[in-house]
Design goal:
about 150 residues; 5-stranded mixed beta sheet; about 30% helix; alpha+beta
């Protein structure tokens, strides 16, 4: 049986290992991941849930809700979703997305958005539609601030 629950500090290693499967273009550095994970554990407006099977973390979803002008209300944003390759095609991604949508709706969200390159068919099957082109640019953080 699969259980969806909020991630805990004890899930850090398992979520890190799953996160390394997210992109082949970006290296997820362990130390930076640990810093981010600790911050996310403290944030109240962040959704970081895992799917557990036989006490093993086999999937996670990271997202949040934010206020936006264009949507006339809060927007739920899916930042990352990863299901272990051995457990794909078992409806776990759908379960996580349904759970996130419900969590977002409970916070007043009127829309859920995400960016993807390789899972378009999955999201279309869930009722999402192609809406925009996603751009990104890597920048160096300004360490002199703050």
């Amino acid at each position: 049986m699969h259980v969806i629950r909020p991630a805990t500090i004890n899930d850090e290693e398992a979520v890190y290992l799953l996160s390394t499967k997210l992109s082949q273009k970006f290296e997820i550095k362990r130390q930076a991941f640990s810093v981010a994970f600790a911050q996310l554990m403290q944030a109240e407006d962040v959704y970081l849930h895992v799917v557990v099977s036989s006490e093993h973390v086999i999937a996670y979803l990271l997202g949040w809700t934010r206020i936006a002008f264009y949507s006339n209300g809060p927007v739920g944003w899916v930042q990352e979703i990863v299901v272990d390759t051995k457990y794909r095609r078992r409806q776990l991604g759908r379960l996580l997305m349904d759970h996130f949508e419900s969590w977002s709706a409970d916070r007043g969200a009127v829309l859920v958005s995400l960016a993807t390159r390789g899972a378009s068919e999955f999201y279309l099957a869930l009722g999402y539609r192609d809406s925009a082109t996603y751009y990104k640019k890597t920048i160096e953080p300004n360490r002199s601030l703050g």
